[in-house]
Amino acid sequence: MDLATPAGFRDVLPDEATARERIARAVQDAFAARGYAPIETPTLEIMDVMRAGGRVSASPFKLFDARGDLLAMRPDVTMQVARMCATRLVDEPGPLRLRYMQRVFREADGSMRAEAREMTQIGIECVGASGAEADAEVVGLLAEALSLTGADECMLALATVGVLRALLAACGASAAWKERVLDAYHRSNFVELDRLVAEGAGDGGAPPVFAEAIRKLPRIRGGREAIGEARALVGPLGCEDGLDAFEATFDALERRGLGGRLLVDFSVMSSFDYYTGLVFEAYAPGMGTPVGSGGRYDSTIAPRGVARPAAGFAFFLERAMEAASATGRPRASGRPGENAAPREGSFDGAVDPPLRIAVPKGSLNADAVAALAAAGLDVTGLADPGRALIVRNPGVEYVIVRPTDAPAFVASGAADCGICGEDSLLEAEPDVVELVDLGFGACRFVVAEPAGAAADTLEHQRRLGSIRVATKYPRIAAAHYARRGAQVEIVKLHGNIELAPLTGMAERIVDITATGTTLRENDLVVVEEVLSSTARFFSNTCAFRTDARIMHLADELARNVRRSSTAREERK
Ligand SMILES: Nc1ncnc2c1ncn2[C@@H]1O[C@H](COP(=O)(O)OP(=O)(O)OP(=O)(O)O)[C@@H](O)[C@H]1O
Ligand SMILES: O=P(O)(O)OC[C@H]1O[C@H](OP(=O)(O)OP(=O)(O)O)[C@H](O)[C@@H]1O
């Protein structure tokens, strides 16, 4: 008999269970002292209810019940509370102050399979109260709860979603363009945002003043002054929605003594769909994923058509305990835990732990090293590291990775930021901030088949209803064929993809081509274009928000890209 626990699940031993019990009691007591009453929600939830709030976190376990309803083990509790308030609590006079501590079930995405699939969510919802004091109450309680767990070095990043909504509503762009902008915000893809803005009004985009504001907004960050910066950006366009309330909330939190733990960051709204005002996330030093998050979601609870104000948060007990006990990831030098406060954009290494950058080996390596050197980093030893996998220089630490692994290193927080091809990011779909198109490593993804095989491929398709497509990039290939509505069977290979149609293993391939030499030498021809790719500089989401050196480096890299493209233009 195999005595293992299911993947992503674990037993909790007495030591840890005792600590969990103590912390949970302290946190629940603190919530209760503020008038929050306990609730419980079902472990299984109807999928449609979960989806009512927009994007849902992936639940690893779904099943049909005997009535034919599609159920999921809850990945989140907020939508369940919203449902509870819209139904059985609908006639209760507000404000309702509710607290919970429940297990939730999450599917770790792609490369992050080592993550837990069962976690303990502790949260509150405050329904029926609005205004700065209500918002500050919620944020203040998150800070207090995290302190009670021992994770008192957590930083809180705040934003309000009203500004972006107002910009999109007023800009006059096409619905499709606005949808793409929102999607780029959600995916924290600044490169795509820049591209959409550059498209211009002619292609359904926003006129330049609005487009520029939409591009700049997620880059606004700092302390209180960042609110003023946002105001200066969107005020002239009449899009200050929610900023007064946001400022009042910030003041109220400062009055509660939380000023030193607050970051204003308008990219935080990337992660949310159903929020209508304040949004916030809590980051612990050295941890690659947020410990908790929350916000105001006034229109979600709309019983009998009447919206009810609501705000809340949830945090993961396990992550908070990890943040408290440690220390985050092991660091080769510098003291862990020091990188909580937003830091200045310097690389002197005197105070800060070194910035850790994932650098691709292989064909992108030389250009990546050159770009980092041109941005002012000390790249000594990086071009020729021998068998060393980590190169340490003052203020910076390079981890040398296979390009396909770079997204996993950065998304998990094992590296603060990194470089790899856009193709690797598209394939891994990691939760990272995509910051700069570095321009090098240009290649195309194409569908190819042996020259003269078109008729055979068609016949195969006609007889069997699908064809076999070999690729190293199953997600990119599947997305391409899904867009075209064509049925294929994907054969995943790790290299020398061209062999597949030459040996009868598949009819076609989806693969990278740059010079076209490999296709030519193997007598393959391109039958479709899929996408083109260049190298990207990208960042861990928490590191991006708490470490000012990353934006500084992104700015330097982007400036150099612009400089070389201007020089190229001038030479023409
Ligand atoms: N002709 C090309 N062939 C392969 N990759 C290219 C080419 N041109 C540019 N690239 C970029 O370089 C990256 C791959 O680099 P490289 O060939 O060194 O690694 P790999 O061995 O294919 O990947 P891994 O080691 O991660 O499996 C691609 O992801 C792509 O972004
Ligand atoms: O158009 P070209 O300039 O000839 O480049 C294309 C070749 O490069 C890539 O292979 P890679 O070198 O990454 O090796 P792999 O087959 O092991 O992936 C790709 O898979 C092609 O085989």
UniProtKB/TrEMBL annotation:
InterPro entries: aa-tRNA-synth_II, aa-tRNA-synth_II/BPL/LPL, ATP_PRibTrfase_cat, ATP_PRibTrfase_CS, ATP_PRibTrfase_HisG, ATP_PRibTrfase_HisG_short, HisRS-like_core, HisZ. Its main location: cytoplasm. It is found in: Cytoplasm. Gene3D superfamilies: Bira Bifunctional Protein, Domain 2 (3.30.930.10), Periplasmic binding protein-like II (3.40.190.10). It catalyses: 1-(5-phospho-beta-D-ribosyl)-ATP + diphosphate = 5-phospho-alpha-D-ribose 1-diphosphate + ATP. Pathway: Amino-acid biosynthesis; L-histidine biosynthesis; L-histidine from 5-phospho-alpha-D-ribose 1-diphosphate: step 1/9. CDD domains: HisRS-like_core, PBP2_HisGs. It comes from the Bacteria. Residues 326-349 are annotated as: Disordered. Keywords: Amino-acid biosynthesis, ATP-binding, Cytoplasm, Glycosyltransferase, Histidine biosynthesis, Nucleotide-binding, Transferase. GO terms for molecular function: ATP binding; ATP phosphoribosyltransferase activity. One of its GO terms (cellular component) is cytoplasm. GO terms for biological process: L-histidine biosynthetic process. It is an enzyme of class 2 (transferase). Residues 20-336 form the Aminoacyl-transfer RNA synthetases class-II family profile domain. Its EC number is 2.4.2.17. Belongs to the class-II aminoacyl-tRNA synthetase family. HisZ subfamily. Heteromultimer composed of HisG and HisZ subunits. Lacks the C-terminal regulatory region which is replaced by HisZ. This function is generally fulfilled by the C-terminal part of HisG, which is missing in some bacteria such as this one. Required for the first step of histidine biosynthesis. May allow the feedback regulation of ATP phosphoribosyltransferase activity by histidine. This is Multifunctional fusion protein. It comes from Rubneribacter badeniensis. The gene is hisG.
